[in-house]
Amino acid sequence: MPAAGERSAARREATGRRLARFAALRGRAARPGEFWDVVAVTAADAEQALAYRQQLAEKLSRRELPLGVRYHVFVDPPGPKIGNGGSTLHVLQCLEDLYGDKWTSFIVLLIHSGGYSQRLPNASALGKIFTALPFGDPIYQMLELKLAMYIDFPSHMKPGILITCSDDIELYSTGVTETITFDKPGFTALAHPSDLTVGTTHGVFVLDPSSFSGRGGLEYTSCHHFLHKPDIETMRQCGAVCVRGNRSQLSSSGDHSDSEMDSECVYTDSIFYIDHNIAKQLLTFYKQMGTLCCEIDAYGDFLQALGPGATQDYTKNTNNITTEESQLVEVRQKLYSLLKGTALNVIVLNNSKFYHIGTTQEYLFHFTSDSKLKFELDLLSVAFSIFSDKAETLDQSTSIIQSILEPGCFIGPGSVIEYSRIGPEVSVGRSSIISGSYINFKVDIPSNCFLSSLSVKINNQVKYCAAVLPVQPWTPQRC
């Protein structure tokens, strides 16, 4: 197995190639089969949908996205929250309403971005899919990064839908002759080697040992059954714990130094694909259900029903949900009956990393302190910003995104400044987030502080509001 540094370097090279391919496609019409037929983004309500559509329109007018693509924002129906699983079903309905039977011939990228980003408040106004990233000129946002990282998929995909979330990043490298292909019936998911502690907050695949070795860059295998946020004991009991590079052996070691070189791992989920036959079955189910009154998880409630080892025990397990709606168990049981026996194909990416940036702690860590992500994605300390050489010397762990730093200001290590102007007498402590703010008076902003400002319109008058919150220190999990 290559050393961890070689694996990271391979991911950096593959990421750079994908970014270059996407850059060449921005502002020009994609050829048939070269890109997605439809890119769909979900929104929680009409106001959020309007904001998303405005941002998409601006990106298209600036030729920052590939052209000739159907970009849509689909808003969840009014009423109770329906989760990303319910949103998936609703998007299928919207596609049929817009395109009739033609939608079943489309290659669709579906990005779930319908939350209010309460754990990362600086993304609340613009949406998580429009979170600014510290690279690019002009800066990339999560949308562009998603489109770039999946740039190889459409040309190797049968008509169907690839489902992803808006606050994660998947970086991976495969062999020169290896290709990720989505052409099998049913569900197909990507799998990433992860530390066992990561598996407790993600989906974990119990893979078929007869068709999986754990070697090479890419393997096609099948999943016996899918565990949703299991504890470590359950992972071991179900046979999900693997020895990296040798699937047939189990490890009892609990000592971890570099997670990429640890022998013990599990394979966790990220994005998954459904073919149009499954999509039509799910749409029929949605029509039969009528109005949904509960939150459905596209991962926990779809994937747990798949594979030969699936049982309906999970349908009554409400440990991983925040509220238990009366309809939830009934919906889960009906989904299980619908999907039982459906294959869960898995594409194992042995040299891959999954990064989640959905909380303030993760956001700060990955943008300032995570040397691997900064190296592999070539993140900058100062991106698309004006930085005076008379300002205090910046620590390399800071992240300045589309901002102006005036001479004399000080930015502490591990802090992120985005969409802001920082005056000459401003001092920002360590591990803080400053977003959308113009600060032009003498002030010391403490460490571990979140400060975000927004302009709002009330009674046709522009007003301003600011939110100040503490940022709790975070110990990262190793993927």
Account of the protein in words:
The chain has 479 residues and is α/β, with parallel strands linked by helices. The chain contains 11 helices and 27 strands. It has helices spanning 4-25, 46-61, 83-99, 142-149, 196-199, 232-237, 276-289, 298-303, 328-339, 360-369, 371-377, and strands at 38-43, 70-75, 107-112, 132-136, 139-141, 160-165, 168-172, 187-194, 203-207, 218-228, 242-243, 264-275, 344-349, 352-356, 382-383, 386-387, 399-401, 404-405, 410-411, 416-418, 421-422, 426-428, 433-435, 438-439, 443-445, 449-458, 461-470. Strand 1 (38-43), helix 2 and strand 2 (70-75) form a beta-alpha-beta unit. The longest helix is centred in the first third of the chain and has 22 residues, at 4-25. It is globular. 46% of the residues are buried.
Keywords for this entry:
27 strands; alpha/beta; 10-stranded mixed beta sheet; single chain; 28% strand; 11 helices; 479 residues; 6-stranded mixed beta sheet
**N-C termini distance:** 17 Å
Mean pLDDT value: 91
Report strand %.
25-35%
Q: How large is the count of helical segments?
A: 11
Q: How can the largest sheet be summarized?
A: 10 strands, mixed
Bulk shape: globular
Per DSSP E runs of 2 or more residues, the count of β-strands stands at 27
Spatial extent as radius of gyration: 23 Å
Helix-residue proportion: 25-40%
Tell me the structural class: alpha/beta
Low-confidence stretches: 247-258
